[in-house]
Write a structure and sequence with these properties.
- Strand 1 and strand 2 form a beta hairpin.
- The chain starts with a helix and ends with a strand.
- It is an alpha+beta fold.
- The protein is globular, with a radius of gyration of 21 Å.
- Strands 1, 2, 3, 4, 5, 6 and 7 form a seven-stranded antiparallel sheet that branches.
């Protein structure tokens, strides 16, 4: 009798246990992202005198103003160099770049480096959301840092040399914007 009764409850216990485990994991992810967003806000506050622009979870810190009146909007083609860093209260480890000077300065090496300029069509979905959001509104010649939590990056999927649930900072140099 006991065996038959327990046999009926085992699937329910397994489902309940899985739900508890997943909710804890979900809550831990939310907590991690909340901590990242606080750390990003602290970092932004250290950038006195710099213009910051917030757009859908990404903060763009303008290091050097661009020029001209062509503002990047969805549908436009943007040509740029970038350096991607894991964010830990600031720039941490470089995980990708297409800018030779940055690679040389940091001793960063790829087996098959491609230091050609990156061209994207803004709004195409070819970039992670944090980059896509941060590039909207840039000007030709602008040098910026785009900072965002894991929620707008790779989230809980490890990519390149980026651990899961990592906030990211992309340093970008805009060379051209073509209105489409």
């Amino acid at each position: 009798m006991f065996y038959r009764t327990m046999k009926n409850y085992i699937p329910i216990l397994l489902v309940f246990s899985a739900a508890v485990f997943l909710s804890c994991t979900k809550q831990e992810k939310k907590n991690s992202i909340a901590e990242q967003e606080k750390s990003i806000e602290n970092y932004i506050n250290t950038m006195s005198g710099k213009t910051t622009v917030k757009n859908s979870g990404t903060t763009r810190i303008i290091m050097d103003q661009g020029s001209g009146d062509v503002v990047a909007e969805k549908g436009d083609s943007i040509y740029f160099y970038y350096a991607g860093y894991v964010f830990e209260s600031g720039k941490s480890s470089l995980f990708c770049t297409n800018r030779l000077a940055t690679a040389e300065e940091s001793g960063f090496q790829l087996t098959d480096p491609d230091y050609s300029i990156k061209k994207i069509r803004l709004g195409s979905g070819d970039l992670i959301p944090g980059l896509e959001n941060g590039l909207e509104g840039v000007l030709k010649g602008e040098h910026s840092e785009l900072v965002f939590s894991a929620k707008y990056g790779y989230y809980d999927k490890p990519a390149y040399n980026v651990p899961s649930l990592s906030a990211l900072l992309f340093e970008i140099w805009i060379t051209e914007i073509i209105k489409n």
